[in-house]
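Job type: complex structure
Entries:
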Amino acid sequence: MSDFITSIKENNSIVIIETNGYLNNVGGEAVSAVVYEKMAQGQTKFLINMAATKIVNSIGVSILIEIIEKLQEVNGKIGYYNLAPIVAKTFNIMGLTKYSTVYETEEAAVNDL
Amino acid sequence: MKKPSVELRLPILPNMELIATQTAEVISRHMNLTEDQGAEISMALIEACINAFEHSKAENNVFINFLIEDDSLIIKVIDQGIGFDKTKVEIPKIENKIGKDERKRGWGLQLIQELMDSVEFESNNEGTTVTMKKNIKQ
């Protein structure tokens, strides 16, 4: 597992990926590798816990857009929680919030997704 | 009296933009900027550095100047690359990227403009200077 991903777990058939550090191209590709592997196993719902990711760049976030696109093909969904304010603002500016959801907590995310 | 300034010279290597953000964080604290303002400056700086590293095709260093004014922080990101024509840069929209063949990247300028109070671009075939300003909110 990449250093960027500190844990992968499941809750109510949702794959929850916990990240750590800078979401750049390397971090984004680490997340996409996990998502695509789990999609190949039939999983369609994903959450990213970004509590330990305080900084991102647009290349890393663009990889999340690619993931959203792939998930649309299987009626899948992705959401995020524990976002730093600047990460939430970046997601909003780039439009991710039109195609995926930011939650306050894991519980809220698992109940809704 | 001359205003204080900080100058950085960054080699074009992976993640060097984080050196610029660390400097920006120290300056933001010195200027008593809010945490949100500091984070916005860092994010804009990351994007300006990535543009300079990746798109300018500069082979040398990227220079960053922080100018500490009484009522604002001005940051100049300077490369000696091939330059670009801002009028030819399309404003990205996710609707035009999702489910289409279009590349998903190309958000840097949009983010910089949204996160800073003013942004100016000077560019020619000898390089680009991006001048970003964040006003201090009292």
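Summary: The domain at 5-112 of chain A is CATH 3.30.750.24 (Transcription Regulator spoIIAA). The CA atoms of residues 2 and 25 of chain A lie 13 Å apart.
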